[in-house]
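Training component of the fellowship. As part of building independent skills, the fellow (R.M.) carried out the full modelling exercise for a liganded target. The chosen ligand was zinc ion. The inputs are recorded below so that the supervisory panel can assess the work.
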Amino acid sequence: MNSNESVRQIRIFDTTLRDGEQSPGGSMNFAEKLEVAQALTDLGVDIIEAGFPIASPGDFESVREIANTIRGASICGLARCNTADIERAWDALKGAERPRIHVFLATSAIHREFKLRMSQDEIVQRAVQGVELAVGFCDDVEFSPEDAARTEHDFLCRVVEAAINAGATTINIPDTVGYATPREMFERIELLLNRVPNIDRAVLSVHCHDDLGLAVANSLAAVEAGCGQVECTINGIGERAGNCALEEVVMAMKTRREFYHCETGIHSERLVPTSRLVSKITGLEVQRNKSIVGRNAFAHESGIHQDGMLKEKSTYEIMRPQDVGFAKTDLVLGKHSGRAALADRARALGFHISGEQLQLVFENFKALADKKKEIYDGDIVALIQQEISGKIDEAWSLVRFEVASGSNRPPKVSLTLRHDGQEFTREVEQGDGPIDAAFWAVEGITGYQVVCKDYRVRSATLGRDALGEVQLEVEHKGKTFKGLGVSTDTVEATVLAMLNAINRIASADSMTEEPNAV
Ligand code: KIV
Ligand code: ZN
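Fellow's submitted model of the complex:
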């Protein structure tokens, strides 16, 4: 690149905690959201969309806590264009160092006619009222014409101009249904930049969904056309097929800096730890061959490639694994390692643990070190993850269990749980194996009937003495809940995962309200 050529700074707006959390099965509890918000700050994102405060009391509380505790990044809350949403969003955000209210209203003909039943004039009026109300609370207001990618050009320009006149400082162009192509996205952004007379008073942003697998390409096309902000999520998680993947869009701009002439404030060596953290917390696994953060992203298998790599790395490598945070070593800790070494390793793996949380993880670490000699990164992540995901009201907890099973006999489980200080025991001799029997026993005691949608067991590390990690997804009253359990005994890990899911159901039962369309 010509060194005189100016490099634009692109703002990274992360919506893992809002749009990302809308991934089916990807919901997070309060402590998990705080952990992700902290990791996003360490990663260097400019704006964290922390949630949709009116959606539920749980969403409100987590946005408020993130606003009150996270420093550095702007903290944003989503609101529809109505008074209740905007006031609720402000209530949650007002403790932030840099609060942002994000108001949205659908503008495409299909949404106007079938969802909102509003005319073009009514849409403009509602958008202006919403932005003006938000501006009364906070200087930093973003407006999104939902389904902008399918909105008529003239009408989109009209709404955008009106929103900027009303005080919006960022205009975000969502491809809500992932329908656009890169060239269309480029042309739409170019059109707005050329036709909207006051466009220079706002930052133009893009928000792409991945239904056709084009979210990253469309976001990059928007950047090329002149957008100054990209909305994205870690690992590309999000509604349906997901959103633009942060790690991909950032590394494309960094690796092809001479092409895009752009840079971001992202510390790229935090990408892999953050990706792993989000994957662990949401239970949404990253495919092995996923660009940038997948396990195979830097693995060269073919002999010809390996030969080239040995002679000169740049023959087959366009980025270095360490640039995105693949650690060279899996450091081993053991029973003589102290709290500081554990905290240090946890930090390198993307987790912030201190105080009481560090103490609890340390106790479990010591107990594990008594069972197995060497403790690997995977063990540490599993222990911390269990501690974070258990940070919900522990309505039900495990006291003890026994299991007997074998060829030609029904499995038998005896289980004791604690609830409200009281112990409840049940013996079950039913099911097609010990796991099934454990499910029956937990359901029998707690009274929660669930349908198991997914059950995965994997070892957290190498070796046959490794921690077993059970991740499951259950359905209860039409909603999906995840559960995580960790133990060297897989039946115990199953019971713990089941209780984790049931405790989430119990806490959600008392917290949920669904917002409707407008
Ligand atoms: O996809 C979308 O349109 C959204 C808006 C709320 C920005 O997520
Ligand atoms: Zn979206």
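The panel noted the following from the submitted structure. The chain has 17 helices and 16 strands. Residues 204 and 296 are 35 Å apart (CA to CA).
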